[in-house]
């Protein structure tokens, strides 16, 4: 049986799905890509307007309709509530950090006063405004080439993208600065993929489970649990970053933040705990953020 791996048609989506296809082939499972067109591929309106989950729902619908056997998502785009119809596998995470792609090799600090920076993510907008209130932040949509092309053409001085995406398509050298999470905190589960199949497909589940990376799974779950407890969607100005440390790599440190869109206020809280209990750590962090007034900022 050749597994039909559903993916969006963008360069980034087909590249990351192609990596999963190749890994499945390495484990002896034949697989091929199947392109699924989503509303977000034909509607260039901001994600906030066309709806959270627009890039994942079409793939899930194709799974239910048996048009594909496997769906490959960016984990950060999935709804935070588990869907009992699907079995979830999370492979090894790429670099979770955000990156600046600026003209003339500039860093964020070196950009001139009033520079035009492109991003549509409220999480990035709020943190950029806190770091550089003088910047003119402009909306940004399109694939990686389109976004970076706005810098090349001179329309923008810089754009901010996920470093994982740049790395997956071999363009990591285009980054003029990669932000430490302490400076620009990434989105929950940024850099992680989510692979789904139908829960009744036991043979496919056996194959996909070979791709599971336990450390990536628990850190991504911790970050996404914060988002869930705050009742915020993937486009909310919420960030989270978890790491595993300690002698055996079993101690988790989770930091999460909620930001005012104008950059005027930031709520950030960290907690540590056992890595095998990511939800408990996330509950603690989310509770502290709520106590500090996160609901007001999420408004």
From TrEMBL:
One Pfam assignment: Porphobil_deamC
Tree of life domain: Bacteria
CC cofactor note: Binds 1 dipyrromethane group covalently.
Cofactor(s) required, per the database record: dipyrromethane
S-(dipyrrolylmethanemethyl)cysteine: residues bearing it: 234
Biological process terms in GO annotation: protoporphyrinogen IX biosynthetic process
Keywords from the UniProt entry: Porphyrin biosynthesis, Transferase
A single GO molecular function term of this UniProt record: hydroxymethylbilane synthase activity
Gene3D superfamilies in the cross-refs: Periplasmic binding protein-like II (3.40.190.10), Porphobilinogen deaminase, C-terminal domain (3.30.160.40)
E.C. no: 2.5.1.61
Protein family according to the UniProt entry: Belongs to the HMBS family.
Role noted for this protein: Tetrapolymerization of the monopyrrole PBG into the hydroxymethylbilane pre-uroporphyrinogen in several discrete steps.
Oligomer status and interactors: Monomer.
The protein's name: Porphobilinogen deaminase
Protein's gene: hemC
